[in-house]
Amino acid sequence: MSSALFIHSLNNSRRSLVGWAIGCAVIGMGYASTYPDQKNNTDSMPAGVRESLNIDGSAAGYLQATVFGLILPLLAMIYGVTAGLRSTASDEESGEMDLTLAHPITRTKLVLHRFADAAVGALGISLVVWLALLAIRDSAELTSVTPVELLAQCLQLFLLAVTFAALAFGIGTALGSKVAVLVGSTVVGVIAYVANSLYAQFDAEWIKYLSPLYYYMGGEPLRYGFQWGHIAALVILSAVFLTVGTIRFNRRDVNS
Predict the structure, then answer these.
(1) How many CB atoms lie within 10 A of CB 158?
(2) Nearest to 35 by CA among 189, 145, 126, 113
(3) Closest Cα to residue 159, out of 105, 205, 221, 107?
(4) Percentage, residues of the chain above pLDDT 90
């Protein structure tokens, strides 16, 4: 029964997943393909200006600052929250959760199978982004970044989406409220951005370690490949969010 629910849930979300995958791939390719022009502009600047503005003209630096530093992580977080919201609080408020729980399946299995659906979707999106960037790697003059380094960064993108999906699942299963999921996820996202981007202004290096975005990008996988410590941190954080929400879900009345 549980595997049937997983397949059914994945089948229901297939159209949105295709849209997410194509959209993220096209956006990634669009930004990455402008690297040759940006490199020419950067090379034409005096060295002193580049140093004062902290401009990195390398392919890895460009991808880190644009493709994987701006729009794709934002989309990954939005996907994760949307998947978590749809599978938990949204179903509960619509009454569909009651119908699902009437079947012979435990609440824990229900949460895990629906979370697996969100994770499989995030994995598919990240793989499509990786393949899309590989397709334009030569034409966009990105060959200094190896396929393995691109894969390492796409793995971090996948884990970032999973982390925010786990956050949404945790809040949704614990509270059963769409508003709580949206507000809680937004607050965490803003705090994560501030902690990762502005910690130097507070002269507090430790603040960045509180941000999922630091573990997503801080190890610079586009330069150094797989960052196993950061990967472990995102996996543990996801497990904590999911475990706390599941424990609460098993102890409360649905739609109460």
Answers:
(1) 23
(2) 145
(3) 221
(4) 57
Is the CB of residue 167 less than 8 Å from the CB of residue 185?
yes
Instruction: Report the predicted TM-score, pTM, of the whole model to 2 decimal places.
Output: 0.90
Q: What local confidence, expressed as pLDDT, does residue 199 receive?
A: 67
* Mean pLDDT within 95-115: 80
Token pair listed for 166: 């786990």
Contact 59, 43 (CB under 8 A): no
What local confidence, expressed as pLDDT, does residue 53 receive? Answer: 43
13 CB neighbour count, 10 Å cutoff: 18
CA distance 118 to 161: 9
42, amino acid identity: T
pLDDT at 106 over 60: yes
- 90 pLDDT band (50/70/90 cuts)? confident
Q: Structure tokens of 229?
A: 């410590």
Backbone angles phi, psi at 116, to 5 degrees: -60, -35
Contact (Cβ atoms closer than 8 angstroms) between residue 118 and residue 80: yes
Q: How far apart are CA 87 and CA 26, in angstroms?
A: 27
The stretch 170-191 carries a mean pLDDT of 92
Residues 6+ apart with CB under 8 A from 173: 88, 111, 245, 246, 248, 249
Mind giving me the DSSP string for 36-77? HHHHHHHHTS-HHHHHHHT---SHHHHHHHTIIIIIHHHHHH
Distance CA 238, CA 247 (A): 14
| Dist CA 125 CA 224 (whole Å) | 23
